[in-house]
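We emphasize that the prediction below concerns an isolated chain of 236 residues; any contacts that depend on oligomerization or on bound cofactors are therefore not represented. The input was used exactly as deposited, without trimming of termini.
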Amino acid sequence: MKEHWLAIDTATDLASVAVSTSDRTIAQSVRGARQHAAQIVPLIHEVLATAHLSLERIRGIVVGDGPGSFTGLRIGWAAAKGLIQERPVPMVAIPSLLGAAHAAGVNVVAACYDALRGQVFGASYAFATDGMETLVTPGLFTIAELAAALPRRPDLAVGDGAERYRAEVLAWTAKEPMGLDALPPIAASLLILAGYSGVGRALDNPGVAEPVYGRPAEAQVKWETRHGRPLPNSSR
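Result of the prediction step, given as a token string:
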């Protein structure tokens, strides 16, 4: 794990922040998407205070890369960008779904965030002592489509999407899905994953970088439908 790095994840209704010290990880979570904008910065300061660290000692930032909540992701990324404006440090984006899968603590995991409309933002990963493998890259699926894309039955399915489609997940995995509340804070897993080789993407120009939303925001879809063309400067 990279020492004195900060991680922020706001891809779902359960936001989390974590920081690594020389001997431990401090992590906190807050529930409620409507609270993210008001709570994320105080949560960052709370975690840093608990770790007895100042922002000046942070050496890098990891952000959850989605896919997930459009508004939630923008809040987390805006907070991270604001921090590096004060003191430029490396910024790395790692899929939040990967963080949720890692937090589950089992070998093969299907991570599913609720995407509404009968779909989930889903992915699957396999973990071993010497690293991890992406079995299904993050994308938009029904549970049946995600099951068909995965070469083997997962040991567990996690996330609010797995909970929402419990019956389908139970028929697929033969195990009860695990909700986000039952997982350790995803930001803590993002810190661990940042130390893995080839995981995530380094943001060379964080000021203009955007997260992977998974699908356009509803307002963007309506604008493009009304005007018959892509929304200028939109990120898909």
